[in-house]
Write a structure and sequence with these properties.
rod-shaped; 1 helix; mainly alpha; single chain
C-alpha cells in the first residue's frame, strides 16, 4: 500500500514537471514571437526612413531644377 502511494506521488510529481516544462516552452514561443514582431516593426521603420530619404532627394532635385 505504502509503495503504491509513493508511486502515485511520483507520477504526480512527474506530471507536474511535464506541465511546467510545457508552460516554459509556451513562454519561450511567446518570447520568440514577440522578438519576430519587434524585428518586423524595425524593418517597417527602416523602410519608412528610406522613403523619407527618397522624398527628400526628390524635393532637393526638384528645387535644383526649378532654380535653373
Amino acid at each position: 500500500r505504502e509503495r503504491e502511494r509513493e508511486r502515485e506521488r511520483e507520477r504526480e510529481r512527474e506530471r507536474e514537471r511535464e506541465r511546467e516544462e510545457r508552460e516554459r516552452e509556451r513562454e519561450r514561443e511567446r518570447e520568440r514571437e514577440r522578438e519576430r514582431e519587434n524585428e518586423r516593426e524595425r524593418e517597417r521603420e527602416r523602410e519608412r526612413e528610406r522613403e523619407r530619404e527618397r522624398e527628400s532627394v526628390c524635393v532637393c532635385l526638384t528645387n535644383v531644377l526649378v532654380v535653373r
